[in-house]
Amino acid sequence: MAVRRCATDVVESGAGCGRATVPRTLRNSRAPSVGLRRSLCSRTLRTAENFREVNQREIKKVPTLRGKTVINLFFENSTRTRTSFELAAKRLSADAVNISVSSSSVTKGETLVDTALNLDAMQPDCIVVRHGSAGVPHQLAKVSKAAIVNAGDGANEHPTQALLDAMTIREHKGVIEGLQVAIVGDILHSRVARSNIHLLTKLGAHVRVAGPKTLVPPDFAHLVENNLIVTEHIEEAIEGADVVMILRIQKERQDSAYFPTLREYSIHYGLTNERLELARKDAIVLHPGPMNRGIEISSDVADSSRSLILDQVKYGVAVRMAVLYLATGGTVVNA
Ligand code: CP
């Protein structure tokens, strides 16, 4: 079934400094990065790179989305994603509204679809949604006239996180094609891992995935057609890697014991300086946040010059500007 304007994907190159339109693929595409063509991913990243310049100005505001309305509808806690979508909307001059689910009518028993229909009746151009259940953005896209952007759905996908990770890698490595990328940790519960596997392999990276057997589903090796290695040994994944992406242990999503203790997890899978020595000398370290310091990553590594964790957050604003720009289908006169 075609899904209406469920978007994180498409842009016209040169956005931010010239006229751009929303390609047909945006309006009919599926939200998860699994459905995106490589060329569309690349163009989204190029658009984000153009918008990045706006964030470096003293006055960080352009009229690109003036008159557009963006609603942030977050059913889960968020620091980085919610704030950066709000900043992205405001820097593009859109009107941004944040719905706090704890103080909304959801707490009175209103269904998700009714909530979406009521918000849609106020004619926003875009609804950014985060939800603890996989597939919610798709569900909302079927009933909403507004563009729906996936800001993370359960353990399924987090497309804009993968885009900002790719942007961070490209800024520091120049390319993505041919790089060895290790993704380590709680793969089972990680929407970040899924979106990055799809996006980075599509852009030509070689991805290795590592974690305890209980946290790496056996069928993960078949998630993409090629370029994916699955191992339970962190050292094997990290050896010779250009990029080491460490995932958060998601205590809130764990309904049974996947490893004996956090201490044991840290001993076997925590990223320390010693383990990082196995990677290439110029390897970079990424973490989507929020970090559990001393569990999946040591503070020494997190605070080192190889850690680009705050760069990821910085590029997140530009990526979300690009996604909102595309999702709302406006044209840019001059940024
Ligand atoms: N990376 C990420 O999604 O962080 P938040 O949960 O703070 O949005």
What does this structure look like?
The chain has 335 residues and is of the alpha/beta class. The chain has 2 domains: 147 residues, Rossmann fold (3-Layer(aba) Sandwich), CATH 3.40.50.1370; 155 residues, 3-Layer(aba) Sandwich (Rossmann fold). It has 12 helices and 9 strands. α2 crosses α12, α3 crosses α12 and α6 packs across α7. The longest helix has 20 residues. The two termini are 36 Å apart. The N terminus and C terminus are likely disordered. The structure holds phosphoric acid mono(formamide)ester.
Task: Give the terminus-to-terminus CA distance.
Answer: 36 Å
One letter per element, helices H and strands E, the order comes to HHEHEHEHEHEHEEHEHHEHH
Number of domains: 2
For the record, the CATH class of the largest domain is Alpha Beta
What's the Cα radius of gyration? 19 Å
The ligands found in this model are: phosphoric acid mono(formamide)ester
Give the count of helical stretches.
12
The total strand number stands at 9
Largest sheet data:
5 strands, parallel
The CATH superfamily title of the largest domain: Aspartate/ornithine carbamoyltransferase
